[in-house]
Each structure stands twice: as C-alpha cells, then as structure tokens.
Design a protein that fits this description.
The complex is a heterotrimer of chains A (581), B (227) and C (282).
Chain A (H helix, E strand, L loop, with lengths): L1 H21 L1 H27 L7 H16 L4 H27 L6 H21 L1 H4 L5 E2 L13 H20 L2 H11 L1 H6 L4 H27 L1 E2 L6 H14 L6 H19 L3 H15 L3 H13 L11 E2 L12 E10 L2 E10 L4 E6 L6 H9 L6 E6 L2 E2 L13 E4 L11 H10 L16 E2 L1 H8 L18 H14 L4 E5 L7 H18 L2 E5 L3 H7 L2 E6 L2 E6 L1 H6 L1 H6 L6
Parallel strand pairs in A: 3-10, 6-12, 6-13, 9-11, 11-12
Antiparallel strand pairs in A: 1-2, 4-5, 4-7, 7-8, 13-14
Helix pairs in contact in A: 1-2, 1-7, 2-7, 2-10, 2-11, 2-12, 3-4, 3-10, 4-10, 7-10, 11-12, 12-14, 16-18, 17-18
Chain B lengths: L4 E10 L2 E11 L4 E5 L6 H9 L4 E8 L2 E2 L5 H7 L1 E4 L11 H8 L6 H6 L1 H5 L10 H14 L4 E5 L7 H16 L3 E5 L3 H7 L2 E6 L2 E7 L5 H8 L2
Chain C lengths: L2 H27 L7 H17 L7 H19 L8 H23 L13 E4 L2 E4 H23 L2 H10 L1 H6 L4 H23 L10 H15 L4 H21 L2 H18 L10
Helix pairs in contact in C: 1-5, 1-8, 1-9, 1-10, 2-3, 2-4, 2-8, 2-9, 3-8, 9-10, 9-11, 10-11
The chains are: A alpha/beta (581), B alpha/beta (227), C mainly alpha (282).
C-alpha cells in the first residue's frame, strides 16, 4: 500500500500549498475545478476500467446538489446532515447499481445503449429540475443557504474539498492494486469468457457504475456548498458532456488524470475565454486529437515521458499461495438431455435430443458439420436457451440459466475459437482463471489473491511440452493460435470443473501439439475422475480417449455407444465417414 | 513463361516485428503450392502478404508479371487474387446467399450445392448462425466461384468433417485443372499430399524445405511439422 | 381529431424521418455514432442564409447546401471518421468534438443570433377542410415520394449489402474486392448531405441558429433506437412513434410532457428492446 500513499501524499501537499502560494481567490477557483475533477475521476474509473461510458453523470451530481441545498436551507445539526448525506449516497449508489445491472443483464454488447440511457435520464432530470419550481426553484435554481458547517467557500471550505479529493484519489490508487482492478479490465476485454468463468458481469458493471455515481454525488454535494446556488444546469446534459471531455483530455486510465484535466481545462477556460475568441474552437480540436491520437489523455503522455526517464522495473513474482477450494458441488453426476429442442428463428438446431451420460468418463461428440454439436454444448452452459425439453445434471436442472451460473454447477467450457483475454498477459489470464469458482467478495480486495495457484494448473504449466511457461508476461494477442488453445485449456481446467466441455480442443494444432493436448485431457480425467465431453473430428483421437461416443446428425441423436459399436452402426456409416488428419 | 505468382526475398510481419524472412517461391498457373509448418511459423502471414492485408517490409511480389507493389487488397482482388482467411471467413450478418453473391462473378454455385447440400438448404440463413465447419465450407465455395486466377486458402479444412474435405480436394483439383494457381496453407498432411504439386515448408519464418509433389515423401512432410 | 392536428402529425413525422435518414445511414449502417449529425442539419439550414449573403438567386440554395455540406463531410471522413470504424465509443467522442467545432465555426461566422428565411412557396392550401401552409404540404408529399423512391432503389441495389459486409468484416470485404475507403466515404458523405438537405427544407419553418442541431440529434437517435437500426421501415416506424408521441402530447398536454414522454419511451426501448421495433437488415 505504500505505493498508493506516495502519490496521494504528494497530491495533498500540492493542494495545501495553493492557498499559501496563490491566495484565497485562486483556491476558490481551483476548488471548483477539483469538484468537477472528483466527478470526472468517477467517470474515469468506470470508463477506463470497464469501458462503460456514462453520458449523464450530472444526474447524480445534480440530485446530490439539490438534496444538499434543500438540507442546508433547512439548517439543522451538522452531524444529522452528514448522516443524511451518507444515506443519500447509499440510495444513489443502490439505484445506480440496480439500473446498470438490469440494463446489462442478459446482454453483452449494450454499452452504447447504456450510454444513451444515461443521456436520456439526465435530460429528463434537467427538464424536471427546470419546471418543478416548487421542488427545485425551477429555472432560476435554488439558493439562500450556507455551506456545510458554515465554512467559507473562499476560506475553510477549500480544505474540505482537498480532503475529499485526496480521499477519493487514495481510494482509487488502492483499488488499482487489488484484484478488483483486474476483474474490471477482464470484463471489458472478454465478457463472455468472464461469464463462463463464473463472474456475473452485469453486477460487476453495475457495481462500477454505482461507485462512479457515488463519487459524482459526493462532488455534487460539495458543489452546492461551494457555489451557494444549484440550478438545472447542475443536472444537465452540458455538464455531463463537459465532465466526459475533462476525463478524456485528462486521462481516463490514470487516477489523477481527470483531476489534471479539470484543473487545466478549467483554468485555461477561465483565463483564455475573454482574451482568445477561438478558445472553444481550440478545445474542440484538442479533444478530437486526444480521442484519435492519445486516448489516454494528458496523464498518459506524462507517464510515457516519465517512463523514458525511469523505465518500469519488473516486479518480482510473489510466492505462490495455495488457492482455496472451489465452491461448487464436486460429486460426480450424470448429464441428461431430456427431449431437448433448440430453434433459432426458423432453423431447427436440436430436435428432441435425449441421452444420459455416465457420471464420469470421457464422452466424445461427433457428427457432420452443422449437426448441432457446438449448439448442444452452448445449451449446457446457458449461452443458448432451449426452446423445449430440459437438461439435468444429476437432480439439478441446468438449462436456460445465465452463462455465469454454469460454473456454480461445476461446468467448465472451452470454446471452439479460443476465447481468452487478449489485452492481458498470460499470467494475468491465469490469475483470473484461478479466481473462478473460488472467490469470495473479500478476496477481491486482498492482494494475496494474485498469488493463488492450484495443483491442476501447476501440473499443466509444469508439463515440459506445454509452451506457456516461457510466455508468461507476453500479451496474449501476440500468441499463435495453438498456444492460445493451450492457454484457454489451462484456464478452463484451473477451476477443476466437474464437467469439462471441450469444443474441438485440437483445432489449429500441429500433430505433435494434438498428441499433447489429448494426453492432457486424458490425465485430467483419470486424476480427477470427472466427466469430460469433447467435440472432435479426428477419429483417431476419438478412438483413443472415448469411453462412449455420441453421434449427432441434423440435430438428432444417431447413436450413443462405445466407439466400436458406433463405428459399425450402418446409419452412422451412411452419413458420416471417418478419417484422420 | 512468367509464373503466375513470383515472390522474391519477401520479408514482413506486424507493426515493427518481422515474422517472415527472405521468402522466395513461384507458383505457376495450373499448379497448387502447399505451404506447411507448425503453428506460429508464418503461414497466415505469408497468405496475408500476398493478398494485401499487410504490407511487406522488403521483397517483391509479382503477379502475372506485374509488380504488386503496395496495392491494397481490393485492388489485388480485381487483379485476380482470391482469398479465404483462416478466421472471420464469412460475413456473419449476411445470409448465405448474400455471402455468395457478393463475391461471385456470376458463375453459378449450383455445382457446389451438389457437393455441399447443406449450403443450399441454408441460403436464407445468416452466416453467423451456422456452425464453424459450415462457415468454412461457405467461405470455401465463395472463394471457388470468384473469377480469380490465383486462389489463396489459409487452413480451409480446420474443423471440417473429413467427407467434406474430400469434396474440397476435388474442387481444388478441378480449379487447378482449369488453369488457376493455388496457394494452400495447411496442417492437414493428408490433404496436402493429395492435391499439392509443390511443397514449401516453413519454420520460424524461413523456408526450410521445398520439393515437388512426386519427390517429397510423407516423412519429409512430417519432418517440417515435428517439434 | 382535428385536421390541423393530423396535418401537424404528418409534418412532424415526415420531417423527422428525413432528418433521421442521414443518421440511419451513418449510425445504422456505418455504426458511427455521429454526434455531429445535428450540426450538418444546421449547416444545411444556413444554406439559404449563405445564398442570400452571396447575392445568389434563390434556386441556387440546393447546390449551395450540397457544396457546403458535402466537402465538409468528405474532409471530416478522410481525416477523422475513417479511423473510427468499429470503434463506436470513440466515434461518439470524436464526433462530439466535431460538433462543438462546427458549432463554433458557424457562430464565429454568423454570430449567435437567430436568422430566418421565407418559404419558397407562400400561402395556404385547403386540405381536409383546414387551411395549411402550402410549403408544408409540398414538403410532406416530396418526402413521401422521396422515401418511396429510396425504398425501391434499396431493394434492387447491392450497396446496402456491401456496406453491411464492410462494417461487419472490413478485411474480408477488401479481400472480395470492395474498396472500403471509397464506400465508407461515399456513405458518410451521402448521409451528411441528406441531413443538410433536411436542414435546408426545414429552414423556412424554424429559427436558424448555431445551437439548433442538438434537438435534431437527440430526436433522430431516439427515432432510430425505437424503430430499429438498419432498415427503412424501422426509420419510418421510429419517426412515427417519436414525432407522433411528442406532437400528440404536446397538443393535448404541454410541450414539456411531450418531451418527457419521448425521453421515457426511448429509455424503455433502450432498456427492454434495444433493437427497436424492426431491426432487420436492409
């Protein structure tokens, strides 16, 4: 945590010096910029980590400002006011969480639509604030109240703002070093993969949004005290857009970025607006340039320059910590399809599929292209919902549930096209995989979670032919396809699932790599005595590993038996002739 | 007679890193060159360099005697170079029919529908809802019906069921017989032995083996792929 | 329902459809969240002002509009927009910057005050027993015919399919011979010119000032969200719902309620039915 305290302390010192060096009026102005900066820091956290872009943060800013104004106007006990503030913050955070979680639930690509929703909401708020005169003072706004604790905005109140700024920044610095940070980035990188690892991504986004809303509300409360007046503009679209611009220009990937953006843009705007008629024009051009060329904003440019002088020292790997046990039911249970039907539009993909696997063993699924093999696997994980029938795991019904619940039933899935976290390094990918199925809420905030290792993972990585050991710090996007297959396999197996679903694990692998993957799968099954279901085309592999073979054709089960019997089945021979690579 | 495709000293890769070094090879019209190598040796990079998706750092590519220079991919297509990529090989949002019609020269795909009847059944279906293997077949047929002189295919049989692979081999042989040149990157040694007239083996971005179809044995091919 | 209300509905729906058409192409097809869409409408609305400033005859307003909007759109596409395909959030931000830029430039040239121009067709016509401005009737009919023509063209042309292909998989589009740079520039410029044209047509009926674009932007986005991106039917349905709700409630209750109803409706659609009423692919 020392590395978080240092920049926060520097910030504190710098901010405390301002009234000493530049006088009270400058402190008053900087105070306002800091207030906007705090709100922008919330945006930076949400946008920089999870990729969700809120276009209506003034909604929370303004509501908090109005509530603060109303409360302060009523005067009353300072401690009661602060308690009320805490309650309001909690209510805002709770509502924001529910809003975001509902919008993102069951939908992966709804980012831009969420942004438009926040835009529409802030416009409603602005409209209401301007017309509900009895509640909000209408178009002219609400004034006639003293600041919190009767502190002077040109004097003591500045220190309240500084305290808030440093507190928020410190909190953000600390969060950056915790597993929470990695989880948020992973959700942005590959949401479906996160869901298959058991993370409820809509709730993660909801929590991030709620957090940003709370920070915006905090800023709004400070704003009311600082300015002494709250108008509909405080809950308006223009302010929301301005905050986004400050975040972008300052830098959304750095904690202090939005503060830098707010102070620089705010100061420059005040200084230059009168003397330089092209000021707004210049701002627009700068903003466009930042979006195109420097998406990390000013803060990232600073960091790049800093890194040239002092390159990043690679952190030494911390010692491994044994991971806690996975928290799902590990008793072996058979998988049963009962008259499962799957229709997408007019296309019938699965047509009354029924079978029951043994509780352990390796089952291969074969069939011509388009037989419905991958779709069958997708119905097991919940990526597709069945349109008829049901899927049972022992006594538990598992079909038509959201994909992030699959792991809680012990289902681990490796996809046809390797789905891993491309922007993260191999080791970061594995860290996230290690959290799957084992995480408690508190572990998100403990640095030791980064060091979790399990036997299943160490076995794979330790295998001499598996290529990942040397590539631990490499970003995954540069790995060749075959190595990504091994990475995704390792990640799926890290959670030691009771049912391991593998969709063409040898696709794109050379003959030697194929032999290695086959051996890994066999040893997993023999060591853990669990159920493995593999989709394969290569009959030599199917013959070598299968306890039973399921043949699908045109969405129907053609045969389900051991390999030799299936091979001799005339129906199977008719539609599907085997071959090897 | 100038070869259909001449590559000389080709070096190229991604951003600042080169992945292929000093590749020189020729493809005559009416012949098929099989390119083999383990994962990550540069087969896809070679395909993309010839097709135009990425630019070479050094070296020449001459098509039909004309230097390709820095022509963008769509211009190369109009020169007569067709391409079936390894990933993202169809337009997911378009129907099967639209996928086929965008590329075609008007050559009817009917012959191909006989070989791959599933495609005909799915004409109105969005390509993205088809299985992985079906998408490969769609992309393959789209590539075959284009009016092209040189066809580049990057691992077309991955995930395709063996019976269909045999059909694909027949289609390739026929196109070659009609005079097309084919650059086929593959890990499927059976297919390569079946259709290739020439072999090019790659390792770590360099040529490690060349040989004609008749003279190269299965053992030679295995050697290129062995660890 | 009175005839005037009916005619107002027809006017609001058809003009919104025309305004939103450009965004339907740029956002619906090219997936560029063009926050400067309203500014292109605004620039088009200034065309009559520019024409009279230059002392040109009135019938040159249309060419002036195209000559102003077209090159601006083209330059913006080649310098900024072309980096943004497939980057929806970045396109939102960059075009927001462009919007501010365009607003400022117009303000610097023309000042912040309102301008107004007179309609090319004066007087009223008696329709359904009510006296209604002839210009508006002509515009309604013109837009209707225009959309019919556009629909007919779209069913026969491969351009929409090629754009969809290009947006979904630009590398493959290039591989099959589509000149993606030319196609995307053409589509973007066409979309912006349509917006400018809408502005030109609306100019005699609104106050022309640099900030007028925001309202058109918001309503266009919501019309598309509700109706469905990527299809002409969606555009029509969305415009009908949005303009219809706003006009109807505006007449029955107040402007504020009309506006609030539109916002609430759009929020609900964004949440529950983000693909809109009709999201087919055309």
């Amino acid at each position: 945590m020392a590395s978080a305290l240092l920049p926060a302390s520097l910030l504190l010192v710098v901010l405390l010096l301002i009234p000493e060096l530049f006088g009270d009026f400058m402190a008053y102005q900087i105070g306002l910029y800091l207030i906007y900066g705090i709100a922008a820091q919330g945006i930076g956290f949400l946008w920089g980590k999870t990729g969700v872009l809120p276009l209506g943060q003034a909604l929370f800013f303004g509501i908090a400002a109005y509530v603060t104004a109303i409360t302060l106007r009523a005067e009353g006990n300072l401690f009661l006011n602060l308690a009320l503030a805490a309650i309001v913050l909690a209510v805002i955070a709770g509502s924001a969480f529910v809003l975001a979680a509902l919008v993102f639930r069951g939908r992966n690509e709804s980012g831009p639509y969420f942004s438009l929703i926040t835009l529409a909401l802030v416009m409603i708020a602005e409209q209401v604030a301007g017309t509900a005169t009895s509640l909000t003072g209408g178009f002219n706004g609400m004034s006639g109240f003293n600041s919190l604790g009767n502190l002077d905005p040109f004097g003591g109140f500045y220190y309240v703002i500084v305290a808030a700024t440093v507190a928020v920044s410190l909190l953000l610095f600390i969060l950056n070093r915790l597993p929470v940070n990695l989880i948020a980035k992973a959700v942005l990188d590959n949401e479906p993969r996160m869901q298959l690892l058991g993370f409820p991504t809509h709730m993660i986004k909801g929590a991030a949004f709620a957090f940003s809303a709370m920070i915006a509300a905090l800023a709004g409360g400070l704003f009311a005290s600082h300015q002494g007046i709250v108008t509909p503009a405080s809950t308006g679209f223009a302010l929301s857009a301005e905050l986004v611009i400050l975040t972008a220009v300052g830098g959304r990937f750095h904690v202090l970025g939005p503060l830098i953006g707010a102070v620089i843009v705010g100061w420059a705007s005040t200084e230059l607006r009168d003397s330089f008629p092209y000021w707004e024009l210049l701002m627009a051009v700068v903003f466009i340039l930042v979006v195109l060329k420097a998406p990390g904003g000013i803060a990232e440019l600073f960091e790049a320059a800093f890194r040239r002088v002092r390159p990043k020292t690679p952190t030494s790997a911390a010692p491994a910590v044994t991971a806690p046990e996975t928290r799902f039911d590990k008793t072996p249970r058979p998988l049963r399809f009962e008259d499962v039907r799957l229709k997408i539009g007019v296309v019938r993909i699965l047509n009354a599929v029924s079978f029951e696997t043994p509780a352990t063993g390796i089952i291969s699924v074969i069939g011509p292209n388009g037989a419905g093999k991958t779709s069958a696997l997708n119905t097991i994980t919940g990526n597709l919902s069945v349109t008829g029938g049901r899927i049972m795991l022992g006594e538990v019904r598992i079909d038509s549930r959201p994909p992030h619940t699959a792991l809680s039933n012990g289902i681990g899935s490796k996809l046809q096209v390797p789905s891993v976290f491309f922007s993260l390094s191999v080791s970061e990918n594995l860290v996230i995989a290690m959290m799957a199925g084992r995480l408690r809420m508190s572990d998100l905030f403990k640095p030791s979670t980064f060091q979790w290792r399990s036997k299943s993972l160490s076995d794979i990585l330790g295998h001499p032919s598996v290529p990942l050991k040397e590539e631990m710090t490499a970003p995954v996007e540069y790995l060749p396809q075959g190595h990504r297959q091994f990475l995704e396999y390792a990640m799926t197996v890290a959670a030691e699932p009771s049912i391991l679903l593998l969709d063409e694990p040898c696709a794109g692998l050379s003959p030697d790599e194929t032999a290695l993957m086959t051996k890994l799968v066999q040893s997993y099954q023999s060591e853990t005595s669990r159920l493995v279901i593999v989709i394969e085309h290569d009959m030599s592999i199917v013959e070598a590993i299968s306890d039973k073979v399921l043949v699908l054709h045109l969405g129907k089960v053609l045969a389900f038996d051991d390999y030799d019997k299936v091979r001799q089945n005339p129906q199977v021979q008719a539609v599907y002739s085997g071959g090897t690579k | 007679m100038t070869a259909l495709l001449e590559i000389e000293g080709l070096t190229g890769g991604y951003q600042d890193t080169n992945v292929l070094f000093e590749i020189s090879v020729k493809i005559e019209a009416g012949s098929l060159l099989g390119v083999l190598g383990r994962n990550g040796v540069g087969k896809t990079t070679l395909a993309r360099l010839v097709q135009g998706e990425i630019k070479a750092s050094q070296g020449d590519i001459r098509f039909d005697g004309q230097p390709m220079g820095n022509q963008p991919a769509h211009a190369r297509r109009h020169m007569g170079v067709g391409y079936m990529p390894q990933t993202a090989m169809v337009f997911d949002d378009l129907t099967v029919q639209e996928n086929l019609s965008l590329g075609s020269s008007g050559k009817p795909p009917d012959l191909y529908f006989d070989l791959f009847p599933r495609l005909a059944e799915r004409l109105k279906q969005p390509a993205g809802t088809m299985s992985g293997g079906e998408r490969k077949i769609l992309s393959f047929v789209r590539t075959m019906i284009e009016d092209t002189k040189l066809i580049i295919l990057d691992e077309p049989t991955e995930g395709v069921q063996p019976e269909n692979i045999n059909h694909m081999a027949d289609c390739l042989r026929e196109r070659v017989a009609e005079g097309a040149g084919v650059l086929l990157c593959e890990q499927n040694l059976n297919l390569l032995s079946d259709v290739a007239d020439w072999f090019l083996g790659l390792d770590s971005g360099r040529v490690t083996m060349t040989g004609s179809g008749n003279m190269t044995t299965r053992k030679d091919l295995n050697a290129v792929l062995s660890l | 329902m009175s005839s005037v209300l009916l005619l107002n509905l027809a006017w609001q729906i058809s003009t919104l459809a025309l305004v939103a058409l450009g965004l339907a192409i740029v956002f619906g097809k090219l997936r560029i969240m063009n926050m400067a869409h309203g500014e292109f409408v605004m620039i088009g609305a200034y065309a009559p002002v520019i024409t009279s400033m230059l002392g040109l005859p009135g019938w040159l307003q249309l060419p002036v509009c195209l000559v102003t909007v077209g090159p601006v759109a083209f330059v913006l596409e080649r310098t900024i927009i072309r980096h943004l395909y497939g980057r929806m959030f970045d396109s939102l931000l960059a075009t927001w910057g462009i919007a501010i830029l365009l607003r400022e430039i117009v303000e610097l040239i023309f000042g912040r005050g309102y301008q107004s121009v007179s309609p090319p067709i004066a007087g009223t016509v008696c329709v359904f027993g009510a006296d209604y401005p002839a210009y508006r009737i002509a515009v309604i009919i013109g837009i209707l015919l225009g959309f019919i023509g556009l629909y007919w063209w779209n069913t026969r042309s491969k351009t929409g399919t090629r754009i969809k292909a290009m947006v979904g998989n630009p590398n493959l589009a290039e591989a099959i011979g589509i000149n993606t740079a030319r196609l995307s520039a053409g589509a973007f410029v066409f979309g912006c010119c349509t917006a400018g044209l809408a502005g030109l047509i609306l100019a005699p009926t609104v106050r022309i000032e640099p900030m007028m674009g925001l309202d058109y932007l918001i309503r266009s986005f919501f019309a598309l969200v509700v109706g469905g991106l990527g299809s002409l039917e969606g555009l029509g349905i969305g415009s009908g719902i949005i303009a219809g709700t706003q006009t109807f409630l505006g007449a029955v209750a107040s402007q504020t309620y009309g506006y609030l109803a539109v916002l609430t409706l759009s929020t609900l659609f964004l949440w529950l039915k983000p693909n809109g009423v009709r999201s087919s692919s055309r």
